[in-house]
Amino acid sequence: MARPSDTGGSTGRGGTPRSGPERHPAHLDAEHALALGRGHGHDAFYDTFGPALYEYCWALLGPGGDGDEPDRPGAAVREALLAAVELLDRLPDRRLLRPWLFALARAACQRRGFAAEPPYALIATAPEERALVAMVRRLPPSHRELLELYLRHGLAPAQIAPVLALEGGTAEELCRAAVRRAVDALRESAPAPARPGAAQWALVDVAEVVTCFVLPGPPRRLRRQIVADLTAEETARERAGAAEAMLPLGADGFPLHRDRAPAPAPPAEAAAAPAARAPEEPTSIAPDRATTADTPTRRDGEPVAELAPPHAAARPAAGGTRRWIAPAAAGIATVAAALVLWGIGGSLTGPGLVTQGDPPGAAGLARGGGTTGSTAPDRLPPPTGTAEPTAPPQADRPSASAAPDPTRRTGDTAEQPQAPPDDPPGGGPAPEDPPAPPSIPPSPPPVDDPPGGDRDGLGRLLDDLGDLLDGG
């Protein structure tokens, strides 16, 4: 398994020194941060953190690359270390330098896109390493990353939390869950580990499986390139660009998690000449479901009314001569209707119309006595205007006291005339019959208005209104 590396030491596959789950002292991070702030210690800075960052980026991206970046893990490590030199002042706690570098490397890998499949099966494996390959294929990517940080690189859950933007308690629980799931995956591939006296898989077995699988290490040329670029003036702009790619940062100086994947480039023909878009048509939807997104908007703007030029005011618009006809006709019709009603009312209340009931006194007392059901007053009004015929004077007519008045009332009822006795006392002549009550001539029947009166005037008014409407 082990072979000479291009770094000059006895190391594992790809030249990377074998690393275990031992913890990294926090005070070393503060010392490296202090040296970088003073402008020296770049060689020691790379030797301490560079190989581990390369293994981590390789586990996230896989081997190889493309024409611009033939070594994608190496390009991600270089970007992370260049950005660290520029952003070191943004890290409040210098003891977190190592997890901070892992967070920068993860952001650089995220911009390049994580590998869809675990890259462990892409390299040749020894028999003792096949258990790890079978295990990682059964784990989700998040658990594989947790095992790399927790077991291979020795980060504590409290240090993993800011790298993955998690709470401390959440990171610790996820690390335990990843180990338990790894144990279950190992049990599916083998009933028990090869460790002497072990009856079942345990945490120590998972750590042994992870660390025995040595990942490829960085090439020697990458060290020379990164150490030179950390201080060269010609790469100052590139360092600033790498730092800007890590933004935004949180209050603790760690990159905030967001979508850092580059947007897909448009096709060449679409970039050269964008195709003409067909006009959008509104869809048929219920009015109560319509929203602004369902109705296409006008891209050329709504038409805006403009003031007409001064000389255009003299020219009436087409059809403008009859725009006033509708409201004028309505007003004239209202006036005409009012006049018609006024004329009809005047004709109905003219002098020739009978509006009273029986003439006064016509429902007088009957000859034979009794009362009538008429509501006319009992006493006749005094005669006005015309003289009524009177009875001729009688020479031997009895006095008013002897002959009772036939219309005289006593109390509430009229006193009826009494028949004269057959033989008047004293042997005098018999009195004559009392005169009949005066009669009122009947009223003449109503006649139509004479021609040329109010009706002819109303007709002429209506004719004039009709002529006005026709002429308009």
From TrEMBL:
Residues 1-25, 257-319, 355-472 are annotated as: Disordered. InterPro entries: RNA_pol_sigma_r3/r4-like, WH-like_DNA-bd_sf. Residues 268-277, 286-295, 304-318, 385-405 have a biased composition (Low complexity). Residues 452-463 have a biased composition (Basic and acidic residues). One of its GO terms (cellular component) is DNA-directed RNA polymerase complex. Keywords: DNA-directed RNA polymerase, Transcription. SUPFAM superfamilies: Sigma3 and sigma4 domains of RNA polymerase sigma factors (SSF88659). The keyword Transcription applies. Residues 418-449 have a biased composition (Pro residues). This is DNA-directed RNA polymerase specialized sigma24 family protein. It comes from Murinocardiopsis flavida.
